């Protein structure tokens, strides 16, 4: 497993945990070896040395027993004899105590066999001592001496030899334990040193790997950052891990790609901006030419206004002639007013007659409605009769032959009721037709009355219009169009009612006036409208010309700024190396395709920069 698959914190923890594990293993191993050495030492101190000391006690006690045996022979004083016997007894008791301790220290079969022989010899020796004591009690000195020099001496020598053998056994055992401890110490020392060397080597190796796994990717990231800071965005960044450094390299790779993409877009935008600035310069030139053309058109419009002023003066002269003709029409207008008044009186009388006729027709309509009510009563009687005839026919059918005549009468009555219903319906249709005609007549009379009233109002209006004509002729120059319209309406009313020869004369005069006035008024109005329209157009053109001039200046300034901005953007982009250098080994079609575009962009930026400076 590669260390780069782990983060730095788990990686460092793993390294220190490994070192700690090695130290723990080394400590446990050293403690184990020390416990073994300690066990060997304890065998020497707690087993071998006490055994040797016990054997030495056996030897000393045996020697003292031999001395006491000789004292028992040589000193025959009873008190001394008793002391010697007590001393022998005490020595034997101490031997028994020492023997009890020694039995617990026996650690090998060889030692156990030698000790068993010692016990046999000790038992035989004590029997000899008992014989010696018995001989001493009997004062058999020669026998005591013989026993001491022969059997007791031989037994003591055998015991000494066996004790020496036990000492040798324990000495060999002590030497073996010491040899084991030395060997264990040597083994432990060698193993601990080896483990220390191995742990140190592993620690150094892991530390080297850990440091290298951290410093190398950080160095790569630092190199990539320095390369990007220098403006070179073509240097490849290799990502070979999932730790923090790997993620840092991945983030720098993503940043490099996004920065390269952003700069490429800025480069393309700078080219488009330069093209737009050039097109804006062209549009500004076109606007300047348009302003020149507008100024020329303004001058032509001013000339047209002067000509229009002359035409208006001509119209004014024609209006003076029209005023003279309108004065001649004043007399005829007075005569027309009298005829109109007579016409109004005749229309009022006709209106009264029409209203009386309408009232009579309304009464007739009401009477026809009453007849309809009577017909409703007759229809109801016919229905009742029909029902009675039906009931009679039913009863006759129930009576059989006896009611046949009554059934015939019921049929006749039912037929009569049916004919009555038909007649009633026919009369009702006729009454309905009369009512409909009456209503149409009433509506026609009402319409005639309304028309008469309308005509009366028109006639009255004609009289008022004639009065207005008399006062309006004085201001004919200002109100020509109003007078012409009123005169035309009066002429139409007079023709419709046949007002007389005097009104025809007025009509002819007013029509002539109307025609002239219409011509004059139309011409004057058209000239005035044209003059006002031309004046407004001139004002608008002047304002637009001022605005266009201001806009052209602003556009030219903006175009210069855009050109400068395009140059600045191009200079900023040229600080970065977006593509690998054109080496012979570089065969990427994408790179070869983009290099001319970058070169063209730089040339375009330089051209637009010079254009911006010249425009400024």
From TrEMBL:
It is a multi-pass membrane protein. Residues 319-333 have a biased composition (Polar residues). The chain crosses the membrane at residues 12-31, 188-208. GO terms for biological process: chemotaxis; signal transduction. PROSITE patterns: CHEMOTAXIS_TRANSDUC_2 (PS50111), HAMP (PS50885). CDD domains: HAMP, MCP2201-like_sensor, MCP_signal. Its main location: membrane. It is found in: Cell membrane. This is Methyl-accepting chemotaxis protein. It comes from Pseudomonas protegens. The lineage of its organism: Bacteria, Pseudomonadati, Pseudomonadota, Gammaproteobacteria, Pseudomonadales.
């Amino acid at each position: 497993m590669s260390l780069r698959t782990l983060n730095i914190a788990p990686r460092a923890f793993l390294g220190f945990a490994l070192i700690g594990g090695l130290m723990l293993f080394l400590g446990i191993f050293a403690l184990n070896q020390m416990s073994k050495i300690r066990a060997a030492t304890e065998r020497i101190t707690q087993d071998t040395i006490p055994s040797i000391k016990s054997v030495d006690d056996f030897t000393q006690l045996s020697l003292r027993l031999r001395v006491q045996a000789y004292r028992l022979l040589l000193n025959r004083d009873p008190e001394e004899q008793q002391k010697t016997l007590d001393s022998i007894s005490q020595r034997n008791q101490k031997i028994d105590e020492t023997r009890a301790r020694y039995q617990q220290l026996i650690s090998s079969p060889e030692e156990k066999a030698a000790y068993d022989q010692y016990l046999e010899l000790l038992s035989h020796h004590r029997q000899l001592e008992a014989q010696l004591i018995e001989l001493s009690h009997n004062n058999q000195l020669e026998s005591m001496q013989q026993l001491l020099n022969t059997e007791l001496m031989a037994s003591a020598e055998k015991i000494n030899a066996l004790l020496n053998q036990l000492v040798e056994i324990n000495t060999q055992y002590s030497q073996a334990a010491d040899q084991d401890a030395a060997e264990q110490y040597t083994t432990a020392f060698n193993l601990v040193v080896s483990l220390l060397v191995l742990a140190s080597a592993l620690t150094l190796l892991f530390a080297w790997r850990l440091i290298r796994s951290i410093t190398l990717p950080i160095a790569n990231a630092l190199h990539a950052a320095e390369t990007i800071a220098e403006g070179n965005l073509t240097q490849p960044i290799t990502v070979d891990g999932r730790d923090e450094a790997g993620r840092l390299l991945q983030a720098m790779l993503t940043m490099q790609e996004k920065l390269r993409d952003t700069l490429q877009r800025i480069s393309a935008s700078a080219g488009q901006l330069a093209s737009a600035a050039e097109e804006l310069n062209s549009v500004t030139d076109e606007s300047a030419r348009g302003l020149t053309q507008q100024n020329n058109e303004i001058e032509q419009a001013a000339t047209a206004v002067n000509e229009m002023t002359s035409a208006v003066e001509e119209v004014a002269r024609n209006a003076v002639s029209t005023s003279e003709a309108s004065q001649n029409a004043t007399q005829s207008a007075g005569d027309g007013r009298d005829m109109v008044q007579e016409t109004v009186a005749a229309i009022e009388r006709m209106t009264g007659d029409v209203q009386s006729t309408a009232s009579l027709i309304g009464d007739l309509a009401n009477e026809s409605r009453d007849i309809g009510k009577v017909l409703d009563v007759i229809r109801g009687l016919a229905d009742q009769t029909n029902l009675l005839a039906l009931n009679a026919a039913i009863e006759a059918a129930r009576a059989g032959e006896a009611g046949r005549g009554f059934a015939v009468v019921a049929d006749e009555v039912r037929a009569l009721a049916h004919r009555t219903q038909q007649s009633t319906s026919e009369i009702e249709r006729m009454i309905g037709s009369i009512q409909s005609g009456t209503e149409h007549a009433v509506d026609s009379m009402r319409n005639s009355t309304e028309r008469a009233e309308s005509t009366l109002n028109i006639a009255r209006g004609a009289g008022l219009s004639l009065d207005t004509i008399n006062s309006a002729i004085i201001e004919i120059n200002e109100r020509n169009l109003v007078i012409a319209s009123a005169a035309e309406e009066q002429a139409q009313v007079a023709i419709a009612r046949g007002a007389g020869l005097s009104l025809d004369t007025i009509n002819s005069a007013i029509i002539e006036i109307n025609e002239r006035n219409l011509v004059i008024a139309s011409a004057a109005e058209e000239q005035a409208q044209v003059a006002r329209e031309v004046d407004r157009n001139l004002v608008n053109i002047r304002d637009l010309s001022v605005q266009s001039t201001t806009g052209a200046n602003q556009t030219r300034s903006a175009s210069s700024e855009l050109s400068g901005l395009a140059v600045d953007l191009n200079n900023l982009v040229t600080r970065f190396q977006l593509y690998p250098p054109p080496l012979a080994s570089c065969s990427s079609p994408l790179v070869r395709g983009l290099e001319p575009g970058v070169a063209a962009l730089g040339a375009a930026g330089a051209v637009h920069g010079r254009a911006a400076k010249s425009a400024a």
